[in-house]
Amino acid sequence: MRSNSRKKLPEFPIPEILASQETTSALGDIVEHVDKNAINPNIYKGQFKDPATKEDRFLVRERLKGIYYNKCAYCEDIQNKPEVEHYRPKKKLSEDRNHPGYYWLCYEWTNLLPACHYCNTDKGKRNQFSIRGIRVSAPPRLPDGSWNQSANDASVSPLIDEEPYLLHPEIDQPDDGSYFKFHNTGEMEGIDPKERGEKTIEICDLNREDLLEKRREKIVLVIELIRGFLVLWSEGLLTVDGLARALDSIVFTKMVKLQGPDQPFSLLSIYIFEHFNEIIVPELPTPAQRTVVSAAFADFRVRFKRQQRYYRNLNLMLGSDD
Ligand SMILES: [Zn+2]
Fold first, then answer.
1. Could you tell me which residues are beta bridge partners of residue 47?
2. Does pLDDT of 321 surpass 60?
3. How far away, in angstroms, is 252 Cα from ligand 1 center?
4. How many angstroms is it from 145 CA to the middle of ligand 1?
5. Which residues, 6+ apart, have CB-to-CB distance to 229 below 8 Å?
6. What single-letter DSSP state applies at residue 170?
7. In 3-state terms, what secondary structure has residue 92?
8. Spatial distance between the Cα atoms of 65 and 79, rounded to a whole number of angstroms
9. Percentage, residues of the chain above pLDDT 70
10. How many angstroms does the Cα of residue 115 sit away from the middle of ligand 1?
11. How many Å lie between the centroid of ligand 1 and the Cα of residue 155?
């Protein structure tokens, strides 16, 4: 799972269908009568018939795809037709049979995420939503008894006080390295003391076989690229400096690109970059090769970080907070 900042993407506002008067009114009826059968998938998927092509379109899904670069919000695999998943289950809860589900959040924009079929259903998340804090079991009310719709946002109280185990890519910051570590097998491991990383892996089954293979492929790609240049060096076709320059311009630059939010499994690529000596270096054949590659990467990393700081400062000066 990779951090996402939907709120910073003005090109992807709340889909009109979720904010329309008709939807608001229909939602009011659902809440008033606790009528979960009235929840309409055509609304939260944004389904409509395109008058030009006569084909079904799914406006909410299309917008979520744009925000998540065609990736599943949980496993980061590419999904051309992701499901519109409810972060908080809308109709029932695995952990508590008496809980009605978060039906009042069925059309809530911050509760909708794009997910692959496996992460959303199958052996993945389904209706799980375990928490550490205080469970919200009914729509929050204002002192006058009316429904407090401003409390529907997943990032505000009382929802945030539930302290969900499942990470939310737009509220939590998985990119900062505080929740997960990766092994060179592609396996993920939770590392935070509140066990949110570990629970997220469990809930979405993020160590399933196909994901392990795909993540391992990302690691192997970097190793194979490096090994190719090491062969040239061992055959005397590259000097140490030439090897470092080649690794810089081809391999390390590629490793930076793989961290882009549009890339599948980009959180792993960030981890590889930050833990190069742990993930990549041990897989190189000889001690001399490990030493020279490790030194070349350390040098590249210093320059890259300096460049990052420069651009960050430049953005600050220019008034952008990115
Ligand atoms: Zn997935």
1. 58
2. no
3. 28
4. 39
5. 238, 243, 246, 247, 250, 251
6. T
7. coil
8. 8
9. 99
10. 5
11. 22
